[in-house]
Write a structure and sequence with these properties.
Number of strands: 0
Pfam families: DMAC1_Dmo2
Radius of gyration: 23 Å
Structural class: mainly alpha
Number of helices: 5
Keywords: Membrane, Transmembrane, Transmembrane helix
Protein name: Distal membrane-arm assembly complex protein 1-like domain-containing protein
InterPro entries: DMAC1-like_dom, Mitochondrial_unc_protein
Order of helices and strands: HHHHH
Distance between the termini: 41 Å
Organism: Sclerotinia nivalis
Strand content: under 5%
Largest sheet: none
Amino acid sequence: MAPNSIQTLDRQERLTDVLKKDEAQWKDDCLPCRLTGSAAFIGLGIYSYFSGHSQLKAQESKILKSKSVFGMKSRQTGIAGIALTLVGMGLWRLKN
């Protein structure tokens, strides 16, 4: 019987087999790829932190006048959280 028969195509592959194939395909990721990806995420995290805080400082008076539920602290926390997440992704990319 041909390898691509209806019975073969009808049957689903087990998830563990698919994950093993995927891991084997991407196991040997080159060091320059890891460094580039890591630097991009870490750089984006640092940029978003400083850029976000400078924009908040520039808009501080408008934010305080608006009497928004989201004050300065919650916005600063949001920016810091996004920046830390991006830096964490960069460190994870460097390791994995």
